[in-house]
Automatic annotation (TrEMBL):
SUPFAM superfamilies: Cytochrome c (SSF46626). InterPro entries: Cyt_c-like_dom, Cyt_c-like_dom_sf. Residues 48-137 form the Cytochrome c domain. One of its GO terms (molecular function) is metal ion binding. This is Cytochrome c.
Length: 150
């Protein structure tokens, strides 16, 4: 098997393989970018209120305890689907009131349960936050999270 692989053949395989997979990588990156902008982002529903809600979400570091679509901390429930879990798809008004009421009612201090702190938010901020959670819920996550509570 002495003639198996010459030096130049090995070099060609190395450079050819590197180039090939770099092109595949670049194509997949471009496709992901295109897909995010044109298919998976519901831009029409991305209102100023949703943007304000995202800002409130970031300002108060909700992600330090919660996860959103699997990203974040696993101390508190997943909130990417909380809108559906509160019945927002069937009855948006009740879900809006339920979510706002929940956030306002903290801390519950139920023994043996993890505590969510009181977070001071204006009515406008709360409304925006709920719209942000509803918008996030509309993202097609292709079945994530596998369990409804995250
Ligand atoms: C210090 C940790 C912490 C922070 C920060 C926090 N939460 Fe929570 N949150 C919790 C915990 C713990 C629970 C569950 C409490 C329970 O079940 O009694 C919870 C529950 C919730 C629920 C109800 C979830 C459900 O499935 O019923 C919502 C909605 C919520 N949080 C929204 C928020 C928002 C919005 C923010 C940011 C403004 C936030 N939380 C910040 C700890 C936190």
């Amino acid at each position: 098997m002495a003639e198996a692989l010459t030096r130049s053949a090995a070099r060609n395989i190395f450079f050819g393989g590197s180039l090939f997979f770099f092109i595949v990588f670049a194509a997949l990156t471009a496709h992901t970018h295109w897909y995010m902008l044109n298919v998976s982002t519901d831009e029409e529903a991305l209102t100023e209120q949703v943007k304000l809600g995202k800002h409130v979400w970031e300002q108060h570091s909700c992600i330090n305890c919660h996860s959103l679509l699997g990203e974040g901390a696993y101390f508190a429930p997943e909130l990417g689907n909380v809108w559906t879990r509160y019945g927002g798809r069937e009855n948006p008004d009740a879900a809006r009131a339920g979510l706002k009421g929940w956030i306002r009612a903290q801390p519950l201090n139920v023994p043996g349960r993890r505590v969510m702190p009181k977070i001071d938010l204006t009515d406008e901020e709360l409304d925006a936050l709920v719209e942000f959670l509803a918008w996030t819920d509309s993202i097609d996550t292709q079945g994530w999270p596998p369990h409804p509570a995250g």
